[in-house]
């Protein structure tokens, strides 16, 4: 998979999960993809949410891996 295809697939995954984050007053944006690690930035209410790490791993990471199985990890950068 090319770098562009990978980025496109990650963006598709974020598009799928974004409505759930927006419903709680938050959002997410793609920062970078380096060595099969996706860096995202949680925004709005997601920044201070007490369950944001669980959301990141169980929701965002799982959805991204569905679209791009080679991704090893998703991390939040501030």
Give the structural class. Answer: alpha+beta
Give the topology string: H per helix, E per strand: HEEHE
Assembly annotation: single chain
Main beta-sheet annotation: 3 strands, mixed
Any idea what the radius of gyration is? Answer: 12 Å
Uncertain parts: none
- Given the C-alpha coordinates, what overall shape results? globular
Lateral arrangement of strands in the main beta sheet:
1-2-3
> Between the first and last Cα atoms, what is the distance in angstroms?
28 Å
SS field, number of helical segments: 2
Q: How many beta-strand runs?
A: 3
Query: What is the mean pLDDT?
Result: 91
In helices, the fraction of residues equals 40-55%
Please state roughly what percent of the residues sit in beta strands, choosing from under 5%, 5-15%, 15-25%, 25-35%, 35-45% or over 45%. Answer: 25-35%
Describe this structure in words.
This protein is 47% helix and 27% strand. The chain contains two helices and three strands; from the N terminus they run αββαβ. Strands 1-2-3 form a three-stranded mixed beta sheet. Helix 2 (52-67) links the parallel strand 2 (37-44) and strand 3 (73-76). Helix 1 (3-23) packs antiparallel against helix 2 (52-67). The mean pLDDT is 91.
List the helices and strands and how they pair.
Elements lengths: L2 H21 L2 E9 L2 E8 L7 H16 L5 E4 L2
Parallel strand pairs: 2-3
Antiparallel strand pairs: 1-2
Task: Please describe the structure with a list of short key phrases separated by commas or semicolons.
78 residues, alpha+beta
Brief digest:
The chain is of the alpha+beta class and 78 residues long. It has two helices and three strands, in the order αββαβ.
